[in-house]
Amino acid sequence: MKKHIGILTSGGDSPGLNAAIRGVGKAALNYYGMKLIGFRDGFRGMMENRVMRLDGGELSGILTHGGTILGTSRDKPHRMPIDGKMQDMTEVIVSNYHANHLDCLVCLGGGGTLKNALHLQEHGLNVITLPKTIDNDVAMTDITFGFDTALGIATDAIDRLHSTAHSHHRIIVVEIMGHRAGWLALGAGVAGGADVILIPEIPYEVERVAEAIRQRSLGGKPFSIVAVAEGAISLQDHQKRLEKAARKAHGIKKSPAEKKEPAEIRYADNTLELAKKLELLTGLEARVTILGHLQRGGIPSAADRLLATRLGTACAELIEQGHYGVMVAARGDGIEPVKLEDAAGKVKTVPPDHPWVASARRVGTSLGD
Ligand code: F6P
Description:
This protein is of the alpha/beta class. It contains 13 helices and 13 strands. The protein is globular. 6-O-phosphono-beta-D-fructofuranose is lined by residues 12, 110, 133-135, 177-179, 230, 296.
């Protein structure tokens, strides 16, 4: 009997998604003789049974396209916003899986998608995921597709920002994506020769950052590039976060004063705040560049196309073998099927003793600690 596959993309878009759809699709259709349909806009489209034909023509010419031909969303099967209320639509999704006579659902996504895939597996569906995100924060896989392309974009941006920094003797603070992980900022910071790299895993002290910049000035280089991960946090804010978590864990209610505190300022606010402080502490002008969604756009790199194709074709082979309930993890030049329950809910962050961190320190980069 021909196997029937459903495929969807969920979470933030990323370079390589279409290469992965093509890898799964071409192998399934042409090599294994399976049938394939796509669901639009992630789990939302599956709940609404918005199906896209994927029987050949749609897979041609998409290898080099950014984004996802299927569309995506961050909606979760069990907490879907409908008419202003969060509703559990798991049963509707399960029913659409069977109505389309599927043997397997392939979900391309990051950490959140893994949790959603595990949830659907627990409701009886055969599910396989592929690790996608520019953040590279999915556990149990060497790397995620999207990361290499974003690394190139962020590194190119840092290269370009050097021009203004040394021409105007300025501090250029460039904010790099990565959510709560520092892989992208660390990798691009090292590759781009940033003078300071701040990542969430190493809470920074702004005075130490300022001192590093001052020392560079005294050494005849009155300019600095500060690569800051969007999730980077000062030691002070890190300690506040720990205290808040401890109080919550002990069921201690917020004091009236704390209730008035703004929710944790996130991302761009932190970065603008940091630039202002560095300007005051060093006497150098500071300017801010927020790379944002530029890092997710455009043509995927060759490495991401190769990785996405490898993972996609391996996914089709696992379906042929009836090997479900796994994430297709990149392992060296090959792949390894990792049980969904082993990977879901885990975030891969940068170990403070990671070789990339050591390399940054050895070339004189300040990590703010
Ligand atoms: O997870 C990928 C990512 O780009 C993160 O780096 C970033 O914090 C987030 O998505 C942005 O989400 P959205 O595209 O929904 O604003």
